Amino acid sequence: MITIVGATGATGGALLRRLAELDVPYRAVSRAPSRLGVATGARTPVETVGADAADPRTLRAAFKGSTQLFLAMANSPRQAELENNVIDAAAACGVQHVVKLSAPAAEPASPVTVSRGHWQVEEHLAATGMTATLLRPYAFMQKLLLNAPAIARGVLIGAMREVPCNYIDVRDIADVAAETLLRPGLAGTTYTLTGPRAFSHPELARLLGELTGRPVRHIDLPPSDFRSHLLSTAHMPPWLADHVVEIQQLAIARPESPNDTIENVLGRPARTLRAFIHEHLHTFAPTT
């Protein structure tokens, strides 16, 4: 049995759909099970369990009879604490293998606060003795959908200058997660995951303009101004605005380039940013 914690998230949801396609039984865990997008008509057993990582007592039932865990909780100031609660419960219930969604630059002195939290969880996981598979993807293509209103108005705002950024489709991350859960030979490794090409913001703006049929202007702001924009216009909480600025500054400090991990694991190329934008063209297209 594979238990999925973080099943309502973008990657967790994509993994639910992938396992259903493969007819693999799974147990999806959420504080709000009614929100789970569990596939209907699956030929294999699908379970949903309500549990709260802030209340470790509720986690025991989630792992009863489970041998593997996929862990992908939302970024938050409490992420390390909550994920460690899940890991402790999994270890106590006999789970043998954990696939954790982590992040680039997961290290003790990382310039990205959220990545330092991921490192703390990785260290905690290592200490349990369970087999740990770490997925470290770069920027999710799906996050671009949050910028769709501004893009539809012809504007792409950031603070990355003209440095490239790796974009990856969460469905590719989920496909890799499924393989590491189903193929024991892939377990126990750290996988850095990227799309097939890195795009700078000016290149992304040109691609968006080409596909939507209207020019998209790239506006590069100083980090402090970008943070203010995220607070006032996007209405992000301060910790999240800080995170967005930090990951964009990380791309400047550590230039990003694509790798072939997706193709090596899946035996096919990674999904392209062009294909993703075309798939969601109705979202990015200019409003009339």
Provide an overview of this structure:
The strands form three sheets. Strands 3-2-1-4-5-6-10 form a seven-stranded parallel beta sheet, with helices on both faces. The chain has a three-stranded mixed beta sheet with strand order 7-9-11. The protein is α/β, with parallel strands linked by helices. The protein has helices spanning 10-21, 79-92, 113-128, 148-152, 170-182, 201-212, 223-232, 238-253, 261-266, 273-279, 281-284, and strands spanning 2-5, 26-30, 46-50, 68-71, 97-101, 131-137, 139-140, 155-158, 165-168, 190-193, 198-199, 217-220. The longest helix is centred in the middle third of the chain and has 16 residues, at 113-128.
Strand content: 15-25%
Q: What kind of oligomer do you see? A: single chain
Kindly report how far apart the N and C termini lie. 49 Å
Helicity level: 25-40%
Overall shape: it is: globular
Described by strand count, sense and barrel closure, the largest sheet is:
7 strands, parallel
Nutshell version of this structure?
The protein is an alpha/beta fold. The protein has 11 helices and 12 strands. β4, α2 and β5 form a beta-alpha-beta unit.
Topology readout:
Layout: E1 2-5, H1 10-21, E2 26-30, E3 46-50, E4 68-71, H2 79-92, E5 97-101, H3 113-128, E6 131-137, E7 139-140, H4 148-152, E8 155-158, E9 165-168, H5 170-182, E10 190-193, E11 198-199, H6 201-212, E12 217-220, H7 223-232, H8 238-253, H9 261-266, H10 273-279, H11 281-284
Parallel strand pairs: 1-2, 1-4, 2-3, 4-5, 5-6, 6-10, 7-9, 8-12
Antiparallel strand pairs: 9-11
Helix pairs in contact: 1-5, 2-3, 7-8
